[in-house]
Design goal:
single chain; alpha/beta; TIM Barrel; six-stranded mixed sheet; globular
Length: 626
Amino acid sequence: MHLSASKISFSCKNYYLCSINLISMRALELLAPAKNYEIAVDAIDCGADAVYMGAASFGARAAATNRIEDIARTVEYAHRYGVRVYATLNTLLFDDELSAAQRQAEQLVDVGVDALIVQDMAYCAMGLNVPLHASTQCALRDAEKVRFFEQTGFSRVVLERAMSLAEIARVREQTAVELEAFIHGAICVSHSGCCYMSRAVSSRSGNRGECSQPCRLAYDLVDADGSVIMRGKHLLSLRDLDMSSHIGAMIDAGVTSFKIEGRLKERDYVRNTVSYYRRLLDTEIARRTDCCRSSVGESQIDFEPNPTKSFSRRGMSYFADGKRVGVASFDTPKSFGELLGRVVEVRAMRIRLDTQCEVSSGDGLCYISDGALLGTNVNRVDGNWIELNRAEGLSVGTEIYRNFDRRFTSAVESCRIKRTIEVDMMLNCTSEKISLTAVDVEGNRAEAAIEGTFDEPRSVSKMHEVAASQLAKCGDTIFRLRKFEVGDLRFVQASILAALRRQVLSRLEQVRLENYRREEPFRESTDARYPQQQLTAYDNVTNRLARQFYERHGVTTIEPPLELSGTMEGYAVMTTDYCIRREIGECLRERPTLKDELFLVRGSRRYALEFDCKECRMRVVPRDNG
């Protein structure tokens, strides 16, 4: 081969391969939390179709913030796979914060985030060139309110965790907006956006991103006479959500985006849960002809995902199938992990378990003893015997959980994860030019060519083998060779083929970014009417722009917000579908033995429990000791 010039040329084109039938398919999204850029990359590599993360301020997790530069890096990394990035701006805003909130929102739009998740309606008046998603903090529990947000211009709503599948299906029947629902992680016991308990006991407000989590504390349950019914129990602390057995039913109910909770969680949790739900969702998609993934790329991991091995308060499906008992964790708000089995023999600091699981030194175990969660570590394993560093309260029959699996955690943290997009390559050779074309699974196309003088190969089969080998070496790119075709083959040095491959794949990656398109931005329609004409203190209209928004949509009376109130006395600081009476077998509909008023007491604080049996809800109301 003799090069007459070192001229490399490029061309690109995007071919949309979707047929009319494919265009009408429902794109399902696995949505993962991202504490920071590094964890966002982990989530994407493990198969997330979208990630959500906080900016510098105004997010509902004040401890999970990111610089605009890191969000920009996340956007660029994500968009190569067609993965979306949502920024959480889901706290209430005060008047003196409106300018700062708008500046930050505009910065996020400028770096390419795909949507803003908001609670405060002030963002609707800022003219932001981006879609808006209505946060679960907007208290979205019925079709009427969801329809309002849809008609106003929101492209998605995030549903309340306590909704049943039947309730979600009813919303879907009456609306067309995208529905996002939680599938895994911690559950707020109160209706989202309707909890003021933290604000009532401290300066920290859940609606401002600084919840102190008083619901996870221990309380006494007492009657009107002061008699203690239950002492020192975590009566408002719920187990974690685990909808893994309901993914198919959620798709049938109309859910579009499947959300994992956990913007404060570390990489092992995110890697593990995303990988686990990626498999489940892919299995459901494969069974259906009307659904597809909303992003592309296949993830390769070398561990077996198991969400019970990450932080878990004994997951359950909450009220997916209707309201039921067994959803609280009275003994502890801490992580249980996975159930190993029961103790069958105890000898001093050694135990034998009825278990099929392999236990290793360094594992962390826990168990309930006298109503309290106790922890211990595995010092060594000798056959069927497990030697512990403490065995207080252990007896035959005790259930043992593993809340730290040393080997599994090490495997997850050290795992090399790679996500790749399949690409087809076509090599065309003439006596004067060698060109390589690459087309990915979405039809994005790039070409590189080298001009020169190229001779006939001595062995066509050998040359074909060399070409196939070189083009398959996609290395650290985001691509993986699926199919290789060649026309008239000439002798080409391996180094030239490698250079062509690098150039065309680099260009193809750039083409993917250039062809990426964000959805249509939010544009407020003032024709939509809010379901109520009067807003109460619970609706928390905390700034002038939000007030004007509701007035534009037919609201005539707006009470001063509870968030700015000097006292919570007489107001319900929590409204919840969870009911302590139901949980302890004392439902007022079922001949209870406890017929008097019930109170939660912690130190000097006292809360009356009000039971709305018609709506099957409970309210928690602060009361003074008088």
